Task: structure prediction
Amino acid sequence: MAKELTSRAENYSQWYNDLVVKADLAENSAVRGCMVIKPYGYSIWEKMRDELDRMFKETGHVNAYFPLFIPKSYLSREAEHVEGFAKECAVVTHSRLKMADDGSQLIADPASKLEEELIVRPTSETIIWSTYKNWIQSYRDLPILCNQWANVVRWEMRTRLFLRTAEFLWQEGHTAHATREEAEEEARRMLHVYGDFAENFMAMPVIRGVKSENERFAGALDTYTIEAMMQDGKALQAGTSHFLGQNFAKAFDVTFVNKENKPEYVWATSWGVSTRLMGALIMTHSDDNGLVLPPKLAPDQVVIVPIYKNEEQRAQLAEKAEQIMAELKALGIRVKFDNNDTKKPGWKFAEYELKGVPVRLAMGMRDLENGTIEIARRDTLTKETREMQGLGLYIKDLLDEIQANMLAKAKAARDSRIYEVDSYDEFKARIEDGGFFLCHWDGTSETEERIKEETKATIRCVPLEGDKTPGKCMVTGKPSAQRVIIAKAY
Amino acid sequence: MAKELTSRAENYSQWYNDLVVKADLAENSAVRGCMVIKPYGYSIWEKMRDELDRMFKETGHVNAYFPLFIPKSYLSREAEHVEGFAKECAVVTHSRLKMADDGSQLIADPASKLEEELIVRPTSETIIWSTYKNWIQSYRDLPILCNQWANVVRWEMRTRLFLRTAEFLWQEGHTAHATREEAEEEARRMLHVYGDFAENFMAMPVIRGVKSENERFAGALDTYTIEAMMQDGKALQAGTSHFLGQNFAKAFDVTFVNKENKPEYVWATSWGVSTRLMGALIMTHSDDNGLVLPPKLAPDQVVIVPIYKNEEQRAQLAEKAEQIMAELKALGIRVKFDNNDTKKPGWKFAEYELKGVPVRLAMGMRDLENGTIEIARRDTLTKETREMQGLGLYIKDLLDEIQANMLAKAKAARDSRIYEVDSYDEFKARIEDGGFFLCHWDGTSETEERIKEETKATIRCVPLEGDKTPGKCMVTGKPSAQRVIIAKAY
Result:
């Protein structure tokens, strides 16, 4: 099975597509650009969702649900917002199908044409702020800290499973605040929640930064981002948090009476991560044998494969496996016992490598006699035989070690491809090979656009941490406040 | 606050609407027929969803996600199915907005007209079976036991919060089997999962039965249902499970090679419950003071309200409350301490009654001196003062008792309104007052339609349990296999 995977060296893009499909994560559907998330892929997404949901709740947020549809006129209220989304949206125009007069096919019934078209939400700022208008009168009603788990639709022209699909699943937080400072603090807080999630759960190092004006969310005053580096050296924007100022409050006339009894527009943030994180997870860690999952997000953290020659041996091994299962489960470890008799151990080994299960335990009759077991790590592809005694705690530590090792490995790989470059010629010569380029930039859109046109690379962010030394723009020689990250991106 | 609620006696329907809005469960949105589920309402739905999800997983099901959109031609493949859904669906016809030539407004860009219209899923049988075609070759690929949590859209003309909305949240299970028997068993299994959930978590007694042909799901051979009685004596269909035979397999040409190496069409089921359950929950238990929540689904099971005169007292009570919180939390009880200084205790009492919190603890300085606390039950509206000693276990038992009492009370109320009636005249005279009527019916659609036309009551189901004695149809006098449940319904 694993051998059917295109290797990364041969064709990185094809490797990714192969892996997503063969590891049963997702597949293309009959509907253009929409994917089917298969059970195994969905179970990983569920783990991500549950952890994020817990982190949101721990930071005081609550979940709610807002309509799928947005009246066309709402989208137009915020000028930049509509500019950003009108060109790729699903427009609902009718509410009924009927048989055509010639009986040949169903058609949208002209009599059911809607007075105002509805847009399938590409994001929910407009419908939510039209709702908040009724929820907010006084500073006592603030802050509102809502999140929603939902599907959204953006009619992308070129789609790729998880990375860019017409429909995707995501969460979108929408908060309302009494002061600018509080809203800005919230936007940064959620950036760090995303960053911490990426690093502590996905084992994916990210650079936390702020977007240039060109790359901001449509309607935001500031967009914070976490940027990860994929194995091919390209950047992937993994999550964004927006300080929206009073733009949406003004568009929907949402004011509150402040402590001084004066009316004021409400301050806003929004922030989201999506099933795109699945793509980031896959491309950060996986190898030519398949998926490599960090233990904290693996649906099965351990799989036990018995090796036997007959039913009697199978029964004896099953008994032992049940004991191990009980021991591991008592320690909170997610473990699966694959006692399927229609597949050979070798097939199972390849299958669980493809599926990225962090630890594989194999045992045969000799192990049973010796009180030993074979332990294989997915992240390093190493094996060892160890005594059965104390296995549970050993595995528990091993899972922690794998989690830490995956982050360290990804971080080392990334850091080895972050370059400080001061010459635009050198930049142009090297950008094709991938990597993050720390360069001085004069802060203008003109220069940013020139870089993009000439190299297809974009300013990923102005990092919040790190070297803040001023310098000279590598393109124009004009003054630069600090180095920014430039890279080609997904 | 509570006094603003219309009483049930005055206007049951208005009482329901008032309660949903005033208890912060949901509200109408700017989009016709679509609701906003507010944080408190959503937190109850989350509890339901989590319990159901656990029950589905315990019965071997996995979650997946299928596209929001269904190509128009797919809907047409199963004749009854399209008949059932074509008349009320959201039709997507364009993929872009653009500014009208006169600059006055955005319009659906004619150049973006889709080749084939897409329907926002009203249910997903068609898109899922078009996918299953690729997943199923052999009997070894079966069964497939998928569930999806999703939003769906049915363009209902008359909508009511939770009970009937254009968009609603639900889960839909879609399973594929090698034999008819296995599929029928699955459909019944899920009926019982729903029934057990309704009774054990919602404290809502239900009658489990099978629908008449007229009331079947569009495309099903058999529809199983759980029917609950609301306080006004009307029936509410709370969940359905369908045995679909080979209808969708035939429509999408999904065959498998059986153990005898012969091709055969796959057998199917589907089953779903939705946010409609929120309406059922509200209308089963709530009273003129507000919501009454069963402890197992209450976001807060216990609320502690301190009664003080000054900051010193407030601090002393807060200290004690923290101890109680710790004790209750250690027992797995969800407890909230409302130490808000801007609201009076009386306001808080009314508020938590409105919100349906099962147990309210109140304590003042005298309680602190005496080592006592006041305990108020939401279900019975009774109060007692009890010693603080052993409070945790007492509350734990009390929550169990409340859960059991709510089911018993709802069951007694329902059972007192189930009538055996053998005369159609008597039936017609009494049906206006509500209740479930156990009547003999000749099994024909003609008779069923006549009853519906003349009384607006429908055959809710043929109960699976209970009296199976044959008799004579109350309308036609023709033979009847057993009594069926007839009622007016939501």
